[in-house]
TrEMBL record:
<dbReference type="Pfam" id="PF08668">
    <property type="entry name" value="HDOD"/>
</dbReference>
<dbReference type="InterPro" id="IPR052340">
    <property type="entry name" value="RNase_Y/CdgJ"/>
</dbReference>
<dbReference type="InterPro" id="IPR013976">
    <property type="entry name" value="HDOD"/>
</dbReference>
<feature type="domain" description="HDOD">
    <location>
        <begin position="27"/>
        <end position="215"/>
    </location>
</feature>
<protein>
    <submittedName>
        <fullName>HD-like signal output (HDOD) protein</fullName>
    </submittedName>
</protein>
Length: 276
């Protein structure tokens, strides 16, 4: 008998979207505090006092919120000394994002593709830095950039060997999304939008995830531009695409150099704050 072949991109796995989405509920059961934080942050009654009370039951998550609030990104280094103030500084949306990161095991690098967090934090900071050029709030763009890659984690959890091979083979974000659809029938970005919708995230946060591959869509332009900046910073073989095209004319090449420098400087600190 011929020995079993090693995992290959030519062999499509059985991918059950309903089962993958169902696994999100299992994740929530394993991290009840993070699940409560996500639910509270989605509530119209959300308050910094209640969120800080909930966070207090998860020392690791609370520590990350404190660390992020004191990071250079918020300009409050060393001045945030209480958890309630930290929640106010970073905002409810960021607290919700950090709890979602914890829920989906995104904070465990051993369960993710190699260099996942380098790509993830670079994408988040690129989106945040570029946000004012698209009339978006930097804090909201940071959350969008951080969560955009959640689908990557879900696909990797479902098919570790196969997705790791796909990740290393297709370094371009566009090529990777094409390969994901061919292998799983859904891209990681689309899977992210489905998962966030299931968790009650606002519709405004989901639209860019579904529009990023439409070069004519302004709704996807910020995230598309952030992916282009991320490719230039994290992929030595990245084939540059004109920033004017991906940004729907909001950016010129002369705008990109200072963004590259800032994101390169701040990415490591953001990664340290998020992972503890």
């Amino acid at each position: 008998m011929t020995p079993s072949a090693a995992p290959s991109l030519t062999v499509a796995p059985v991918f059950d979207l309903e089962r993958v989405l169902g696994s999100i509920d299992s994740m929530a059961a394993q991290r009840p505090v993070a699940a409560q934080v996500v639910a509270e942050a989605n509530s119209d009654r959300a308050s910094a006092k209640e969120l800080s009370r909930l966070l207090g039951a998860d020392v690791a998550l609370a520590g990350r919120v404190m660390k992020l609030a004191n990071s250079a990104f918020y300009g409050m280094r060393g001045r945030v000394t209480s958890l309630q103030f930290a929640v106010t500084v970073v905002g409810f949306g960021t607290v919700r994002t950090m709890a979602t990161v914890a829920l989906t095991d995104l904070d465990d690098e051993s369960l993710l593709p190699e260099d996942f967090w380098e790509v993830c934090t670079t994408l988040a900071l690129a989106a945040s830095t570029l946000a004012p050029r698209f009339a978006e709030r930097p804090q909201d763009a940071l959350c969008l950039g951080l969560l955009a890659q959640m689908g990557v984690a879900l696909l990797h959890h479902n098919d570790p060997a196969g997705y790791a091979e796909l990740w290393s083979t297709h370094r371009s974000a566009v090529a990777r999304r094409t390969a994901e659809v061919q292998r799983y029938g859904i891209s990681a970005l689309r899977l992210t939008s489905v998962a966030l919708e299931q968790w009650g995230f606002p519709a405004g946060m989901l639209v860019p995830l579904t529009q990023v591959d439409d070069d004519a869509s302004f709704s996807g332009a910020l995230l598309r531009s952030a992916f282009e900046v991320t490719g230039r910073l994290t992929d030595g073989d990245h084939a540059e695409t004109a920033i004017e095209r991906v940004s729907c004319g909001q950016l010129r090449e002369r705008d990109v150099a200072p963004v590259l420098a800032q994101v390169r400087t701040d990415a490591e600190e953001l990664r340290a704050a998020l992972l503890g």
